[in-house]
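hiii, so i know i said id send this last week but things got crazy w the move. better late than never?? heres the sequnce for the chain we talked about at the cafe, plus the structure i predicted for it. fair warning i was half asleep when i ran it
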Amino acid sequence: MTQEEQARLPGYLQEVPQAGHLYGTLSYNRRSKCWTIKGEPCVTEMAKRLFPGSDRKRGEARFTANRRIIGEVNWLMMRYPLAIAPRDRALWEKALAQAREHALRREAAQRLPSRSNPPQGTFEGALREFQKEGLSFLLANERALLADEMGLGKTVQALACLASTGDMPALLIVPPHLVRNWENEVRRFLRVQGRAPRVCVIRGLKPYALEDADVYIIHYLLLRGWKQALPEMGFRAVVFDEIQELRRAGTEKYSAASLLAERCERVIGLSGTPIYNRGAEIWNVINILDFHCLGDWESFTREWCDGYGNHIVRDPALLGAHLRREGLMLRRTKQEVLAELPPKRRLVQEIDADDRIYRELMRPVMEMLGRLREMHPDDRERALLEERIGAGERRATGVAKAPFVAAFVRALIESDEKVLLFAHHHAVMDIYKKELSACHPVFITGRESAAQKDAAVEKFMAGGTNLCVISLRAASGLNLQRASCVVFGELDWSPAVHSQAEDRAHRMGQQDSILCYYLVAPQGSDRDMQDALGLKVSQFVQLMGDRVPDAQVMRDTQGAAKAHIAHMLARYGAET
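okay and structure toks below
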């Protein structure tokens, strides 16, 4: 450490004098990963008064080996010098050096630019001003939670951080329904030595030899199978998307995440739902990022909550301020950055679909397609058969991806978004009804009476539910400006239908910035419908802009549908 750095160190991290009376010993317990003071009652009693949770038994006090706590133990030793066990001297020096390094980084962070951009050539896209601030926060705090509200671009900020630091190989741990989207976003935004990054998606519960890559992606349900393997793979950074998935300890998933985070230099958590009113949940989440930075569970609940083992934080605002002050969390809401956001933001996002269900539903469609190939172009029944083929594939696409759409919407509801979910087929909406029953949705599908429709609108607008499922062709005349998100679980060939649906939320009196998600599957009709609508998958300008596709370059509904049938015939011919 240089003299300048020594001078900048806080007083509690300075060298402890070794002369004079020693009040006891300091040693390291390798099994429990904690430092233990054994000594005179004056020092152990003082430790127990100063540090709740250090109490174990008479004449002994224990401290978790966290870099923040190490500094506090050093401070205690300035008043009560301790003899450090010879076998643990090197370990203590290393732990103290890490505590000092952390303090210097926190001090240096105060002098860093409040806004940052990734180095040129490492990142495709332009960050908004509040996202530049988020990047600066992540660069200054290598273990932190980015808790921006849904729709403010947490994915983009995390990727900008990886681009800036070059911390690769990196591992992304994401919910199952977002694997494909993260794969696309990594390839879209990151650049590694002037090329697109190598991306490897980890599949299956049983570990196997992975190909060389810059970024690896795994979903939470597979963590338990890779628990022992992942920490040994040398990842420099790990990103936990929707880290509230780890809000419950005691599972193999949680244990695997904890072991992995301990081995990585940079750990980023992303969540739009920082649930710090429930002590158990926020303690579990933050504990993954920085082990015992909030103390152990017993001391956390004793001091922050309503008593030992109680799950409710007594003063959530105070805890939130502490997390922000310590560089552990950054959260911005839409209201705070509303001036930077356009009235409507469109995001086309790929999600998975059930291939088995899709193939099963497409069997009769493929038979009809075979008959169509044999028909003469002037056959009078050709137009009717084309319509049935198109409708059949749309239904197969919608049903196959419906459970994944429901999972996506469930995450929005858990983030306290008010959601309008649009679909076309009754079979699809029936799946939504089953999968999203816990969200208590209301439905406007064309099957309800006028009184039932009015009751659904009234319940949504009055706050009786945060989810309204609507048929794409039943959206006219509705006024649902309480909504903060519009989700298209299925697409329509006509852009006017989507514009009308978006405007159910974006109406006079709406003060928020509306986020419109177009959820598309890789197979089926969605690809051609995207092209017909002029929608590009998750382009940055559409994520953070409100540019409506030019009507002059869009095909009409009938022409787009017919072109899609021609594409199906071409694909069918290639497969047979």
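btw Residues 344-575 form a domain with the Rossmann fold fold (CATH 3.40.50.300). thought thatd interest u
miss u guys!!
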